[in-house]
Amino acid sequence: MDRKPRRLIALKLDPAIVLLQMTTAEFREIALTLPDAVERSHLSHADFRAGERGRIFATLGYPDNAFGVLILTPDQQAEALRGHPEAFVVVKGAWGRRGSTQVFLPAARRAVIESVMKLAWQNATARKPARKARATPRYNVGLKPNAQVTCK
């Protein structure tokens, strides 16, 4: 069952929420007020990038104009969903399991989005530790498993 129609019906029934609904322009404004944030395009919709490496912290317009996406950690995502289940939805698949979170703009409040988007921006600008080199190679090129090697 698709969750969007249920939410739209709930918004029509609650005038207080309808008056406070966020727009795409407000989402964009919040993203671009963060330091070193720039807007670009990614897969035919707007994305917002941060830091010297230009890592994406938010996107807008996926799957349609009523949604944005924030790139959170799984722990941050769980907290956002617990606190505001009407505004946040886990993105389907592996991206969602890694923390990508849809924002249903009509149900989102500005103060909440400012706070959660700042977390996403901090995630994008944080330096990740360098990967350790592998002690052993992943595979032996040209050798079959359990093959006998003979030298002449």
Tell me the radius of gyration: 21 Å
Q: Using DSSP, what is the number of strands?
A: 6
Helix fraction? 25-40%
Q: In terms of structural class, how would the helical and strand content be classed? A: alpha+beta
CATH A-level architecture: Alpha-Beta Complex
Furnish the topology, listing elements before pairings:
Blueprint: H1 3-13, H2 15-20, H3 24-32, E1 38-42, E2 45-50, E3 55-60, E4 67-71, H4 74-83, E5 88-90, H5 94-97, E6 100-104, H6 110-125
Helix pairs in contact: 3-6
Question: What would you note in describing this structure?
Answer:
- The chain is 37% helix and 20% strand.
- The protein has 152 residues and is an alpha+beta fold.
- Strands 1-2-3-4-6-5 form a six-stranded antiparallel sheet.
- A hairpin with a 4-residue loop joins β2 (45-50) and β3 (55-60).
- The longest helix has 16 residues, at 110-125.
- The model is unreliable at 1-13 (pLDDT under 50).
